[in-house]
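User: Okay, second chain of the day. Same drill as before: sequence in, structure tokens out.
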Amino acid sequence: QVQVMESGGGLVQAGGSLKLSCEASGFTFNYYTVGWFRQAPGKEREAVACIGGRDESTYYTDSVKGRFTISRDSAKTTVYLQMNNLKPEDTANYYCTAISFFTPAQNLCVTLSYDYWGQGTQVTVSS
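Assistant: Same drill. Structure tokens below.
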């Protein structure tokens, strides 16, 4: 069974940090372009950061540039999202997505089109 599982969310004060993790079962992440998306209640889903499967290129939405970093571990079984200097507007359910590694990172983040996704992990930033 193919699954994508996120972890690492929680409650943090503004200015704090969290590190989210995304793991896959039933398939290997190293052949996939992976992205972190988020959705807050009453708002549209938004791509936060994506990392390419072929070239490890990265893409970030403007609001998180300089604060968030997407990366893979050396075994390419886990994708991380390091979030620093968190703001209340970052509060959302963060979920991980994956699509064939032929897809560039920017394409995944811009088209919001993916093959696999998880249930998400809640991030709440208090002011």
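The radius of gyration is 13 Å.

User: Thanks, on to the next one.
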